[in-house]
């Protein structure tokens, strides 16, 4: 069991930290990651925006990397009825 905190003290999740969290988990043999993120409904990673699309792709690559190393990534949604 490992606690991998990727949020700021204010509860924000920045792409670099999320990517590093998945990579750390994979490189350290973590079997399962449990992910639940707060998403600001007024700002989200929109794939129509080239800059934001790059962020989405970075997270996709990191989760794929973790999965290739044998890590199962579990995600939750709807914690706040959004």
Describe the structure.
By secondary structure, the chain is α+β, with helices and mostly antiparallel strands. The protein has a domain at 22-75. The chain contains 2 helices and 2 strands. Helix 1 (15-27) packs parallel to helix 2 (50-68).
In angstroms, what separates the terminal alpha carbons? 30 Å
How much of the polypeptide forms β-strand, as a percent range?
Answer: 5-15%
Overall pLDDT confidence: 87
Q: Helix- and strand-based class? A: alpha+beta
Please render the helix and strand layout as text:
Layout: H1 15-27, E1 32-35, H2 50-68, E2 72-75
Task: Identify the notable features of this structure and list them briefly.
two-stranded parallel sheet; 82 residues; 2 strands; alpha+beta
Q: Outline of this structure?
A:
This protein has 82 residues and is an alpha+beta fold.
């Amino acid at each position: 069991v490992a606690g991998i905190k990727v949020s700021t003290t204010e509860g924000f999740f920045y792409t670099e930290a999320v990517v590093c969290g998945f990579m750390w988990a994979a490189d350290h043999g973590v079997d399962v990651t449990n992910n639940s993120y707060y998403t600001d409904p007024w700002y989200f990673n929109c794939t129509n925006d080239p800059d934001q699309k790059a962020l989405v792709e970075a997270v996709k690559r990191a989760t794929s990397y973790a999965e290739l190393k044998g890590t199962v990534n579990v995600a939750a949604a709807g914690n706040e009825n959004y």
